[in-house]
Design brief:
The protein is an alpha/beta fold. The protein has one domain: 3-Layer(aba) Sandwich (Arginase, Chain A), CATH 3.40.800. It has eight helices and eight strands. Strands 2-1-3-8-7-4-5-6 form an eight-stranded parallel beta sheet, with helices on both faces. Helix 1 packs across helix 8. The radius of gyration is 16 Å and the shape is globular. It starts with a strand and ends with a helix.
Amino acid sequence: MIVNAVPQRQGAVSPLAAELPAGCLALAELAGSVLGTAVNVVPQSEATSSTVDGVANREVLVGANRAAQLAALEAPGGKVLTIGGDCGVELVPVGVARFRYGHGLAAAWFDAHADLNTAESSPSGAFHGMVLGSLLGQGDADFAASPALERAVLIGARAFDDVEREAVDSGLVGLVPGDPVAVRGAFEGAQCVYLHVDLDVLDPAEFDGLNYPEPGGLTVAQLVDAISALGEFDVIGAGVTECVGTGPELRVLEPVLAAIGALLA
């Protein structure tokens, strides 16, 4: 197993976005300790750039940051756990996994938000709110995955824009609560699974180091149980994103990291 720390912040435009790089590095250090593996820091630009065609920091996202991630995944030598940074860091590893594993790949998307906006529908221009839609081949051609992910299930999502709700209602993605039975059932027939965990799937009372907290989320124990329910599937990679905590509060996430490590071992 390899841990790639990707301290990108340009996919988010929230008030706490500037704290994402430090949160990424602190969480990656904890992951390395919990999982007993070295951490590879994938260099990301510290620059910002203008909003172009509805995407904030477009030039940085499609340029230096993407190139560094692609280089880090050329020959990983094992399953990769990507630690972000904003959710936009998942575009590259999931896209690479789709290319490598084919149409049988499904994404388990643990997130308070659907991440199904496009540049046209996003109220903020923040790419982290577009990344799952991009992986499904939607929206801007500079970001839309090709080949596109064909199957994704939102788990624990509870905050939707109107366009995202329409996408869910249309069947573009599945939507299940974060309980083990529902999670197992959602991936029946999947050949392999990529696990995405945006930490805002947790209730803010459980962990306060969240970039974009939403009330009514999972407890740490519920998240661990839901992740562990994927143990009967071939989980080929994983990502954990949107952490802005850097101190002792991170320790509450140790069981989450251990559960992910068990799937990737």
